[in-house]
Amino acid sequence: EEQLVESGGGLVQPGGSLRLSCTAPGFTSKRCVLGWSRQAAGKQREWVSSITPDDNIKYGDSMKGRVTLSKDKDKDTVYLQMNSLKPEDTAMYSCVTSLCSDGGPPYWGQGTQVTVSS
Fold this sequence. Notes:
Helix content is 0%, strand content 47%. It is mostly beta strands. The mean pLDDT is 94.
């Protein structure tokens, strides 16, 4: 069973930065899409960013221009650098692998909490 592990969340002041990590064993070799989404309390889940096996990266409108996604193939890890954080960015951030070449189901991590507050 896949185990995705997110880390890097925490409490940050408005305008601050955080770098989230998602380690997804095997997602590179299985050519999965890896995505980040977030869900704030009482709100619907919102897509943040994703990267394809061919390193095509896309960003959602909510954080575009303030986030950068990168990948370390050797570590099967994807990083989400978030800058100029706002209170409305407060949410649980989760990563998910999908559309893997082996046809397996999507796998979600447990999430990492980001709180932006002064």
